[in-house]
Amino acid sequence: MAEIVLASTKEAAGEVVASHIAGLVAGNPETVLGVATGSTPLPVYEALGARARDGLDFSRVSAYALDEYVGLPVEHPESYRSVITKEFVEAVGADPSRVHVPDGSLERIETAGERYEALLAASGGVDLQILGIGTTGHIGFNEPGSSFGSLTRVKTLTEQTRIDNARFFDSLDEVPIHCVTQGLGTILRAKHLVLLAFGEGKAEALAASVEGPVSSSMPGSAIQLHPHVTVVVDDAAASRLKHLDYYRWAADHKPAWQGL
Ligand code: GLP
Question: Of the candidates 184, 33, 44, 48, which has an alpha carbon nearest to the alpha carbon of residue 99?
Fold first, then answer.
């Protein structure tokens, strides 16, 4: 079962996750992080930025993004390459040559998935994967129906996801229809999954992912197949969890020796 961490605010959630990541990086300067886009991970990156300003060295850390839009120029401010550069690389002072994002350019799109899988294989494995969740239950861009064995490949976004993400663009028409995303099988290979969710809008997908049936109709439920998952949520995102009392009880009785 995933460990459920109830945070009072997004900032507190960011601190919990950043503090754990800082410990990993201090212990292994070559830690391999899986990074996510969207608004959810931003408090983590902000808190990591504070650690970097305090002297934590991220220059040998590698990072692998979950996904990228297809056909959006990398220079576009909403390409996930741009977002990861701005929100993560610049915040922590990572070495851009160690930060990887799937290649969404149309010219070589047929091989984008296998090329990214080869990069991930060469990394030696992701130590900690940060995840958000979409209102459709997607993790990465694995929309409902994605195979639990899927690897990095091109996917078609649902209309709901395009509508959700239109807030980052001038109009819905500008939101790409296709993406390249790590598969659920790829994500499940990371050593530790840390899923964050904030706000009432995520409550249903979160409860279905944590407590619902394991089903490709709810891609987030793939986390139930992983041996080491931490779910960090605010009260609103946690509001539909059936076993909330138990999660609070477990948190209150967490053995001091147990890390995240
Ligand atoms: C995006 C990303 C996901 C992200 C999700 C939620 O489209 N591909 O990795 O987790 O949707 O976004 P947000 O965190 O902004 O709610």
Answer: 33
Q: Looking at this protein, which amino acid is placed at residue 141?
A: F
Q: Which residues contact 87 (CB under 8 A, 6 or more apart)?
A: 37, 41, 42, 45
Using CA atoms of 200, 185, 130, 228 in order, give the dihedral in degrees to the nearest 10: 90
Cβ of 37 closer than 6 Å to ligand 1, yes or no, is: yes
Q: 141 C-alpha to center of ligand 1: Å?
A: 8
Topology (CATH) of 3-253 = Rossmann fold (3.40.50)
Alpha carbons 231 and 75: distance in angstroms, whole number: 33
Q: List average pLDDT for each run of 10 residues in the chain, which is 260 residues long.
A: 95 98 98 97 98 98 98 97 98 98 98 98 97 95 98 97 96 98 98 98 98 98 98 98 97 93
Select from 138, 142, 184, 231 the residue to mutate for testing ligand 1; criterion: most ligand atoms less than 8 Å from CB: 138
Distance 255 CA to ligand 1 centre (A): 32
What predicted TM-score, i.e. pTM, was given to this entire model?
Answer: 0.97
Residue from 17, 40, 204 whose mutation best tests the ligand 1 pocket (most atoms within 8 A of CB): 40
Number of Cβ within a 10 Å radius of residue 243 = 14
Burial 118-144 (b: 16+ CB within 10 A, else e): eebeebeebbbbbbbbbebbbbbbbbb
Domain ranges of the chain: 3-253
